[in-house]
Here is the input.
Amino acid sequence: AVAPADSTVIPPAPPPGRKVAAAPGMAPTPAAEGPMLLRVGFGPGEEVLTPGAQTQLAQLAKRLAGSDERINVKAYAAEVKDGTAARRLSLSRALAVRRFLGDQNVAVARINVTALGAPGDSGPADRVDIVSIGR
Here is the structure.
């Protein structure tokens, strides 16, 4: 039987434990998140890393620089004016963390950045969570 031209054929799932490359033109499946490695706090409206945050990030960078571990930098910011302003501020925070880790010899290609704006959980509003997403 021939499928209509506008249909999509979905290949069968790979066996458990086997990684499959994404088809050309398709985004890879996002990695499952692992444990939280570090939470960096920010003052309201602030996007600059404090000396204490830099110390914590430097310790994490030592661990990451010698491995092929990938991380997700998830940034949040309390809503100040609107959701757009919160998302911009959270992006600035995430990029500050990525830049710092890159300066500490962590490959930035292994750092995913997600700017989420106002948090939807019970955690602090002004923060960046760094989560392992495996290798």
